[in-house]
Amino acid sequence: MLTDKIQSLLGEVADLQAADAKALEELRIKYLSKKGVINGLMGEFRDVAPESKREIGMKLNELKTALQDKLNELREGLATKEDDHSDLDLTRTPYPIAMGTRHPLSIVKNEIIDIFSRLGFSIADGPEVEDDWHVFSSLNFPEDHPARDMQDTFFVEQHPDIVLRTHTSSVQSRVMENSKPPIRVLCPGRVYRNEAISARAHCFFHQVEGLYIDKDVSFTDLKQVLLTFAREMFGPDTKIRLRPSYFPFTEPSAEMDISCNICGGKGCAFCKQTGWVEILGCGMVDPNVLEANGIDSKVYKGYAFGMGVERITNLKYQVKDLRLFSENDVRFLDEFTAAN
């Protein structure tokens, strides 16, 4: 009889077990799906005599409730089991995780910034997409200067006065036109030039330029700052020499060499047997530049210098191919783990 089946199933439901979620789902399908046991009993219920329907109907509802409660109980038990981490050994050493490293250019750039920060220089930044005025005209570049030519500068199409900056001197120009002396800033950043990519050149690279403007600034001040920088960066025995040069925005201008940090100035293949390696350009700010940027050149003087971060990195770590800096080769980057 149907009553006996229901009573038997009530006892069966009380003993149900599920080892995992899959077994629990199989129980649900067996008893509660469209083709399950409960629906089968409902089919038989339709043939029950009217005078017995009330009693048997109550038994069916009791079975359904008992079954649903049992499935919920098993589900909660599985969830508790999943959250139980009592078998974990919390004293065990964690699995080794490979840590990332700073890029060698970032390592050197940060070291340069740290040295000049201790000398009183603050950091200034500016846009990489610039106008002709800040990149060239305000810095005393003649209209026919080669740097304005398409061979050296990336121009923005349909906007001939908009360029990708070729040096971070454009940041110095923006600082001068928006600040009053004394000015002492360091301008690190990425620059762009239309050059063929090779082991010795790239179409983008990184510069750090410095500017100091105040009353009674002399070339001696510039030389002492650069000597301090060289010895901080390459060692206390480093020597420097300044050679006359030409830059549109400084007068007089010079290029600075340091004694080769590989051979100690004795001469080697790296310094081409000269004992000296060029690292930066510098000079006294041209009065025309001061006037163009709203600074009275009869009252104020200044000096400026600029260096390539890649060049300094080459000297410190003897990286011979500039392309390595932008190829994202993890094997190359892993070599600088100890420098972080």
What does this molecule look like?
The protein has two domains: 2-82; 104-339, BirA Bifunctional Protein, domain 2, CATH 3.30.930. By secondary structure, it is of the alpha+beta class. The protein is elongated. A seven-stranded mixed beta sheet has the order 1-5-6-10-9-8-7, with helices on both faces. It has a three-stranded antiparallel beta sheet with strand order 2-4-3. Helix 1 packs parallel to helix 4 and helix 2 runs antiparallel to helix 4. Helix content is 39%, strand content 21%. The protein starts with a helix and ends in a 7-residue tail after the last helix. The chain has helices at residues 2-14, 21-32, 37-45, 50-83, 104-117, 132-135, 169-178, 219-234, 287-292, 309-317, 330-333; strands at residues 122-123, 129-131, 155-156, 159-164, 183-192, 204-214, 240-247, 250-259, 276-285, 301-308.
